[in-house]
Write a structure and sequence with these properties.
With 276 residues, this protein is mainly beta. A hairpin with a 2-residue loop joins strand 13 and strand 14.
Length: 276
């Protein structure tokens, strides 16, 4: 595994975002989710804070080695998995860019060095539950899948009919965590986030915005937003202003809407994705 700290001392700085033609390929590489290509061919896809790699991400070195896991200030830090092109992989704890703490280095599916690590060196055996590396951004990937299916009428995410008596409304095969009644119809995709009192729903609408808005960086578009603050209808709209290269230009006709709809003092908060 290469010296990760040294790598970033050379390649990564705030100025790199403005000076390198490679640089930020999409998203928010300042404080959000973005995809960044380094001059040496390394690629990062994940979270940024203050123009540094912070949070969960995927780092692919130009030689093909891959790291998936937690970052703090441009370094592997937390729990992660490092896969080498020679077929070996390490999964466990990292600190300041090196294997440090508990982890297992696999030489094959049946043989590994499992125990304590210090400064990239195996020290001693230790028993502990196997580490699992999970991407907390899976929700955003599901949102991106839904958005990208919009130009084709959500055909790729249509499941079974919700009822034999309703011929044009289908269950959605992409299941968003925390949502109910997730359906695809000629009007587009619609999912219920909350149903309750107006006061609760106002808070839930803001919660939904915080949940969905960062996910738009996973998509192929740059967005501008509209906001309506009516008594019975409130909504945030996110409308594409441009489409990245190699993405479907039909996405320019896609709209993402987060709505608060009041009927007889019972409010439903929806997430809607549709073609306009």
């Amino acid at each position: 595994m290469k010296n990760f700290v040294f790598l970033f001392a050379i390649c990564f700085s705030v100025n790199a975002f403005s000076q390198q033609k490679t640089g930020c390929l999409s998203g928010d590489c300042g404080s959000g989710f973005g995809i960044y290509l380094f001059p040496n061919g390394d690629r990062y896809e994940g979270n940024f804070v203050n123009f540094k790699l912070n949070g969960f991400g995927y780092y692919t070195e130009a030689n093909g080695n891959k790291y998936t896991g937690d970052f703090v200030d441009n370094k592997f830090h937390g729990v992660g998995k490092y896969e080498s092109m020679d077929g070996t992989w390490y999964i466990g704890q990292f600190e300041n860019g090196v294997r440090q703490g508990l982890g297992a280095n696999y030489f094959s599916k049946t043989y590994c060095e499992k125990g304590k690590w210090e400064n990239n060196r195996y020290i001693d055996k230790a028993e502990f539950p196997d580490f699992i590396v999970t991407d907390p951004n899976d929700f955003c990937k599901d949102i991106a899948t839904l958005i990208k299916s919009a130009p084709d009428g959500f055909v790729s995410v249509k499941g079974e009919l919700v009822s034999q008596y309703i011929k044009d409304t289908y269950h959605c095969t992409v299941k968003l965590r925390g949502f109910t009644a997730q359906e695809v119809s000629p009007e587009g995709f619609k999912a219920v986030f909350f149903t309750g009192t107006p006061q609760e729903a106002t808070k839930k609408l803001e919660e939904l915005k915080k949940l969905v808005q960062p996910c738009l960086a996973y998509d192929c578009c740059n967005y501008y937003s509209n906001f309506n603050n009516g008594q019975t209808l409130k909504f945030y709209e996110f409308i594409p202003s441009s489409v990245y290269a190699n993405c479907d230009n039909r996405l320019l006709k896609t709209k993402i809407e987060l709505s608060y709809e009041n009927a007889n003092n019972s409010v439903t908060v929806y997430l809607k994705i549709k073609q306009v």
